[in-house]
UniProtKB/TrEMBL annotation:
Transmembrane spans: 27-50
Protein name, as recorded: Uncharacterized protein
Domain of life: Bacteria
Keywords: Membrane, Transmembrane, Transmembrane helix
Source species of the chain: Flavobacterium resistens
Length: 148
């Protein structure tokens, strides 16, 4: 009896409710969507990292850091970073174009079809319209009452 209860408790731990499954599916879809959109926001990430570190960049890396009236404020480094990112993207595109090989394969399938004579079928006509009707029914068909 204790083994059955233990097995049921373990089984219930691994069961997920419908709302939990729905939430996990939603999170998975959102995660995959974000992963597809990340490469298109590359320049945004470069700009955001520049803005977060702009003071440090303007004091340490900037070419005009020793000038008294520095109007650059590290923008020269931002331009270099953006150019480097764009060049990297072009290089990656060129690598993908070089690696893409299109292979066309044509297979010829030889089928030997045999001609057969069509099967003639004649439909049997149960009502002949050559003669006049023998009798006319004035009553309408009513199904048995136990079907209703």
């Amino acid at each position: 009896m204790t083994k059955i209860i233990l097995v049921n408790n373990i089984y219930n731990v691994f069961l997920l409710s419908k709302t939990t499954k729905h939430t996990l599916k939603r999170l998975f879809v959102i995660f995959l969507s974000c992963m597809l959109l990340v490469p298109s926001f590359g320049s945004f990430f470069v700009y955001a990292s520049f803005k977060l570190n702009q003071e440090e960049i303007s004091k340490t890396i900037c070419v005009q850091r020793k000038m008294v009236f520095n109007t650059c404020n590290g923008r020269c480094e931002l331009q270099k970073s953006l150019k480097k990112y764009a060049d990297n993207e072009k290089r990656m595109q060129n690598n993908l174009k070089e690696k893409t090989d299109v292979v066309y394969i044509q297979t010829s399938i030889l089928n030997n079809f045999k001609l057969t004579a069509p099967i003639e079928s004649r439909t049997k006509i149960f009502a002949s319209f050559d003669k006049k009707p023998i009798a006319v029914s004035n009553t309408t068909f009513r199904p048995p009452s136990y079907f209703i």
